[in-house]
Amino acid sequence: MAKKKGSGEKPKKHVKGEGPPQPKAAKGEKAGKAGKKGKAAPAGVTGPEPKLEPRLLRHYQEVVVPRLTQQFGWKNRHQVPRIEKVTVNCGLGEASKNQKLLDSVIEEMRMITGQTPVVTRARKAIANFGLREGMPIGVAMTLRKGRMYHFLDRLVSVAIPRIRDFRGLATRSFDGRGNYTLGVREQIMFPEIDFEHVQKIHGLDITVVTSTNKDDEAFALLRELGFPFRGESPVIIGQAAA
After folding, report:
1. pTM score
2. Nearest to 223 by CA among 233, 214, 213, 210
């Protein structure tokens, strides 16, 4: 006798419980059930904590923009120049021979800026300097947005006043395209550095890149942001914003 069609098919697995099998729940429902199983949020907490707004950014928006708009006669506030980024670099000739010195400088730069620097390496070999391609020669980093404003605020308000025999920043350090470069001779001017743990005194190069390509506009911007230029009365950020 011929076998009936479908007699060889395996029976479906029986679902636990009575009644017909229930349809699968949607992904959103599963996620909701999983969230109920987790720990409940503490009372009064409705979301992530708000980020701290940089004091220098608030000073720029409330004080600098109106002053520069009136000074240069701009009609649109988007014409007012702004700081785009800050680059900090440190050259170390002994980094290729002293790994401990390189590690200590990396840690110091991280403490100063709040960001881990990138190790710069030689692009080509120079026999007179005993340098081979790929050897570490320094560290560098680029700061933007919140970290940039926090760093500049501490630089202008705390670090620069600690320089010995300070007589003001040079006004001729602009590159002709609206960017300003500041050379620091000693890293111990920053309060984050503990002098007892410093292996070697070294300098830094700090470059402030602005959105304008005119030196006079960049000078006015940095002056209003509190940079103490030689021959100019410095702007105190806290008092100006009050």
Report:
1. 0.72
2. 233
